[in-house]
Write the structure tokens for this entry.
Amino acid sequence: MLELNPPHRLLLGPGPCNVHYQVLRAMATPLMGHLDPRYIEIMDANMDMLRKVFQTENQITLPISGTGSAGMEAAFYNVLEPGDKAVICHAGFFGGRMMEFASRAGAEIVEVKGEWGQAIDPAQVIETLKQHPDAKLCAMVLVETSTGVQQPLDEVGAYLKGRDTLFLVDAVSALGAIPVRIDEVGIDVCYSCSQKGLAAPSGLAPVTFSVKAMQVVNNRKTKVQSWYLDISLLAKYWTGEKRAYHHTAPISMNYALFEALRIILDEGLQNRFERHQAAVNYLYAELGKRGFKYYAAEGFRAPTLTTVYTPEGLEAEPARIRLLNDFNIEVGSGLGPAAGKIWRIGLMGVNADPQNVARLMAAVDIMNGQ
Amino acid sequence: MLELNPPHRLLLGPGPCNVHYQVLRAMATPLMGHLDPRYIEIMDANMDMLRKVFQTENQITLPISGTGSAGMEAAFYNVLEPGDKAVICHAGFFGGRMMEFASRAGAEIVEVKGEWGQAIDPAQVIETLKQHPDAKLCAMVLVETSTGVQQPLDEVGAYLKGRDTLFLVDAVSALGAIPVRIDEVGIDVCYSCSQKGLAAPSGLAPVTFSVKAMQVVNNRKTKVQSWYLDISLLAKYWTGEKRAYHHTAPISMNYALFEALRIILDEGLQNRFERHQAAVNYLYAELGKRGFKYYAAEGFRAPTLTTVYTPEGLEAEPARIRLLNDFNIEVGSGLGPAAGKIWRIGLMGVNADPQNVARLMAAVDIMNGQ
């Protein structure tokens, strides 16, 4: 019979990433009930710590009991109603997925289309928003996981402050690794996942909703199409005085998130951001020596995820598979127009360390016959 | 700062329950990528083992990446479209929740209402189905977690075989502890959770869809209102030749499920069912000696969850709280009309053991001043 003995991979793809041994150990902590007062202390602590990592005062800041995609669904479904207009910035796979969510919510989509590998010009977004002042939301991806592009948000955030349109941001490949600055930028709805910058296992999706977003939620004419992800019901369980039973929380995942967040705040956000930048700077230097070429546009490369064409003699897909099988190192393959052409190299959470770059480069050198 | 040091509870409520130390250990296993061929082996094994526990040949048998409530949402949303007719059997909190899901799916609901604490007469259900041969589904709860009633399914299952109406069953407080017999009963759509009879942590929702149910899914006129729970997309990731990326699976939870299912099949389903029955028989005997009175009707008491009025001198709610605080034993409180009046005592998974009954009775005796 098959046994549970997975190989010990170095996970340098777009996620999940490796996690701290203390987080793995937290997963093995004996269970409590989901209404146990001692468990509710963990919930409260997780909300507090998530607010710090999101850099927000938003009361409604909590981990959804599903993966990042569930957080994405929660973000769109809670604020959109059939017939609403949604401005969606689309320059990669996850921008496209945003359109799918808005479409399933019955929204009319105004697409701001960008090129894969490029950031979208904020001026173009603001121009579109001027043409559609009735838009319910404007959605952007902070780090497009398919391209490794980090999208500037500040100008759009500043434009939307004081306007009715909500600013919805995907912080999946960002939270815990680069500043997300919810309040400073003026983001109203944001989601992320547990398994990248936060360095916990996959399975939870932290979300945050601003006061302005919650007003939109509270003024809905129709029920949210997902009961499981209905933020008003979740808010009652997470923040209500009575902690009204909604669903049976994934206890162990919340233990892991607790430990991962504790480690993040112990390191300090600023230190952590600098560590991620330092690790990727080392990666850039080593990739440059070996003839890798960047896929993401210069000036817009996310420290969390580096997308590169492999050099001559190292065909992207066969080399990626060999890297996994012979060296136990995972990097991501390309998606969409970049399928089969690039590597996506993630340096997130505990993995943001030059020593991991050195391991990857050693494998590259060996594959190159050196 | 708060530390992760939860008390070591004996979880004899409706779930989550305690899990085997091997399952906790599995949670701490280093991560793999969600598209890693070695992880896909785990996915295949989990599907195979779930089929055995569900007692079905259904190809589409997999764990949804959310808690039992997500499985419930997946079950209803994948087969219902706006305007469809849904016959819902409602004799407790979770029957009521089924109506909420059907309602959010835009269905016209035909309610078969029963009393809390009683089973619903199958003849009444069949009579309703005869009046509504155009119903898209008939939904029943096998074990109503709010009342501890085990609902007979066979007659309704037999009636629906060969008819267009789908048979949808909630097996949340049942799977892995009592026979669910998907194929034999003729159940088309069924969902459960990981944290009760399966004895894994909460966070996954096993579901199974029959060929007949998948035909209904494939003939939909509208997209499923949840992208995250869209069973056609999930089927491509779980069973497709290309394992098309859908979402980043909760890897550690699937490790835990793997280990929990392996333990179940190692024990043997029949042995496991008998162990659950033996444990609850011991509980019945001990409760009887102490003057507890049953809430669920005789002949319909689920072995997994026993609902009782506490004896004179032992007020349900204060005693439940004292049980938790002074004895580290969790039992469930009542819901709905039974709120504050009863205990719900779960003996599921590893907890289905007379020694746990003995621990609970010792605490009861001490609280009774003996």
User: Anything to note?
Assistant: Chain B touches chain A through 70 residues (CB under 8 Å). Chain B has a mean pLDDT of 97. The radius of gyration of chain B is 21 Å.
